[in-house]
């Protein structure tokens, strides 16, 4: 379950506190650790400590049996205790909280971080966060939230990070984030959102990271992200998006990372869909249903460093598709249906270091397929339909240190002899494993285990490396052999 490793770490910390200390006695089942931190762990903890050390700034409940908090649970006590007035961080981890009344968090004027994880909250009332004017980080994760009321964030104008992943949210009020102009990171991942109002993110002018992964989104309003001029990272993976509207990414000139994998995208149109993304460095499109790509798709993304188109339905690639991507370092086209690669397909990829073409339908490669890839270090051609490779195919790839060739129906004859000679001449192994499928005498053996005189072809006019197959014995020649 998400969050468990962190919980175990916190529990380990709590064990380190001296059990016989005076602080432990005053705090019952809670223990001090590191002076300013108080841990309250175990199912025997059912309420907030009556007395907290005045120097305490962190209070963490881990695996406690807290199901609710009373009104003003952290306010100063009648006995003179300062309550939680000095707390800056408060966490409820793996506690069965069912409700958070509007007055429960009163008395925490200095609180900066509030973290609730693995709770049983169905919702947060409008006044739940009142009085938390200095709160900069709020996390309510994996806590069964089904709804959020408009006005919930009216009292938290300083909020910079909001994590709401792993809940059951189906809709959002259109103006929910209106009071949060300083928000920089927002996660709504792993919810049940099927649609978003067009004005949802309108006030978030400083937002740098937006996570909408693993929801039920089928379509997005064209202007949904238009106000997010400061956005650096956008996660839309794991949804049900079949198409993207014109202008969806307009205005996102600072965006560096875009995740669109694990959707139902069948096309990337209209033309210019990515034109407004000059800073984009990482684009993930794997696990969609793309059958073709527009020729100018990447014309407006010259700074791409990593591009994944794996696990789609691509049969061919338009000429010049990658011509503008001189900074691209990683390109994955694995698990598609590519039947051919033209000589100029990878032209322009001067900085490409890793190229993945495994699990396609490639039967033939032109000699110049990788001619301009002088920086290529890793090439994966495994599990295609290759029987041979043209001589000199890798002549320009002097930086190559890894070459995957397994899973092809290699025919180990004169056409593969140059490959065998090249592999044998290398000072460093490339990991290339070529297992012969034919001819019959070499079936199941590796190419490098075959002797040079075995890598022959039937004689053809002009052939230098060939064998003359003996004609089948006739009745006459057979009788002569017997007589001899």
From TrEMBL:
<keyword id="KW-0433">Leucine-rich repeat</keyword>
<feature type="signal peptide">
    <location>
        <begin position="1"/>
        <end position="22"/>
    </location>
</feature>
<dbReference type="InterPro" id="IPR001611">
    <property type="entry name" value="Leu-rich_rpt"/>
</dbReference>
<keyword id="KW-0677">Repeat</keyword>
<keyword id="KW-0732">Signal</keyword>
<dbReference type="Pfam" id="PF13855">
    <property type="entry name" value="LRR_8"/>
</dbReference>
<feature type="domain" description="LRRCT">
    <location>
        <begin position="408"/>
        <end position="458"/>
    </location>
</feature>
<dbReference type="InterPro" id="IPR032675">
    <property type="entry name" value="LRR_dom_sf"/>
</dbReference>
<dbReference type="InterPro" id="IPR000483">
    <property type="entry name" value="Cys-rich_flank_reg_C"/>
</dbReference>
<dbReference type="Pfam" id="PF00560">
    <property type="entry name" value="LRR_1"/>
</dbReference>
<dbReference type="InterPro" id="IPR003591">
    <property type="entry name" value="Leu-rich_rpt_typical-subtyp"/>
</dbReference>
<protein>
    <submittedName>
        <fullName>Carboxypeptidase N subunit 2</fullName>
    </submittedName>
</protein>
């Amino acid at each position: 379950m998400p969050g468990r490793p962190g919980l175990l770490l916190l529990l380990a910390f709590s064990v380190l506190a001296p059990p016989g200390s005076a602080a432990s006695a005053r705090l019952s089942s809670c223990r001090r650790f590191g002076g300013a931190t108080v841990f309250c762990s175990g199912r025997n903890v059912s309420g907030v400590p009556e007395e907290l050390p005045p120097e305490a700034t962190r209070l963490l409940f881990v695996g406690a049996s807290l199901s609710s908090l009373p009104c003003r649970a952290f306010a100063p006590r009648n006995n003179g205790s300062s309550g939680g007035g000095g707390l800056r961080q408060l966490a409820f981890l793996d506690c069965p909280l069912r409700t958070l009344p509007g007055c429960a968090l009163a008395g925490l004027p200095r609180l900066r971080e509030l973290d609730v994880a693995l709770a049983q909250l169905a919702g947060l009332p409008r006044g739940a966060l009142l009085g938390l004017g200095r709160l900069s980080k709020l996390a309510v994760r994996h806590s069964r939230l089904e709804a959020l009321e408009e006005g919930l964030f009216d009292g938290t104008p300083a909020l910079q990070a909001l994590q709401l992943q792993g809940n059951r949210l189906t809709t959002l009020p259109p103006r929910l984030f209106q009071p949060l102009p300083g928000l920089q990171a927002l996660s709504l991942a792993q919810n049940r959102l099927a649609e978003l109002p067009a004005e949802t993110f309108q006030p978030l002018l400083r937002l740098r990271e937006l996570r909408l992964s693993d929801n039920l989104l089928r379509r997005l309003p064209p202007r949904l992200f238009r106000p997010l001029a400061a956005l650096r990272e956008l996660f839309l993976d794991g949804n049900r998006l079949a198409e993207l509207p014109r202008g969806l990414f307009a205005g996102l000139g600072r965006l560096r990372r875009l995740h669109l994998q694990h959707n139902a995208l069948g096309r990337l149109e209209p033309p210019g869909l990515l034109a407004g993304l000059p800073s984009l460095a990482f684009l993930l499109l794997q696990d969609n249903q793309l059958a073709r790509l527009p020729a100018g798709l990447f014309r407006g993304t010259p700074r791409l460093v990593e591009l994944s188109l794996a696990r789609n339905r691509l049969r061919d690639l338009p000429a010049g598709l990658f011509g503008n991507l001189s900074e691209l370092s990683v390109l994955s086209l694995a698990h598609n249906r590519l039947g051919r690669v033209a000589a100029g397909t990878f032209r322009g990829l001067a900085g490409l270091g890793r190229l993945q073409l495994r699990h396609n339908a490639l039967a033939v490669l032109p000699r110049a397929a990788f001619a301009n890839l002088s920086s290529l270090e890793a090439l994966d051609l495994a599990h295609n339909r290759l029987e041979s490779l043209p001589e000199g195919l890798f002549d320009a790839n002097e930086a190559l240190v890894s070459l995957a060739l397994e899973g092809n129906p290699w025919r180990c004859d004169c056409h593969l002899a140059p490959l065998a000679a090249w592999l044998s001449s290398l000072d460093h192994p490339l990991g290339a494993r070529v297992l012969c499928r034919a001819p019959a005498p070499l079936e199941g053996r590796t190419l490098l285990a075959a002797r040079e005189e075995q890598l022959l072809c039937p004689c053809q006019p002009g052939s230098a490396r060939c064998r003359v197959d003996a004609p089948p014995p006739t009745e006459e020649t057979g009788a002569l052999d017997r007589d001899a």
